[in-house]
Amino acid sequence: MKIREYTPGDGVAVIALWNKCLQPDLLDEHNFYNRIICDVNFDSQLFMIAEESMEIVGFAYGTKRKIVDEMAGLQPEQGWIVAMGVHPTHRRKGIGKALVDALEATFKRSGTKNISLGLIQTITSSPV
To answer: Are the beta carbons of 68 and 74 closer than 8 angstroms?
Structure first.
């Protein structure tokens, strides 16, 4: 298995996997590009892809603020894991952990000290 950054050619496969894994939050191509890829805070280095035999089998989408939020500020030490999924037939192989570990390492390099999963804070007291 290989963990790598998102590339522009990954869109269709990621959307299909997203819809298989996150059925309450289905995306079509238009919404995927508008909500994620065109978001001002999008960073392909924080969108990890798990690949096995040239097939995308997992993803983890992280973000940090690039633009100051008028209420919260820039929050340079804060990162978020917004969404992740692993194909059902590839679960229980450590893919999810490898994706989170890769995101965590990338966050750490950018000065992140706190990572929240969705709205639930997962790391609070020590740097990543």
So the answer is: yes
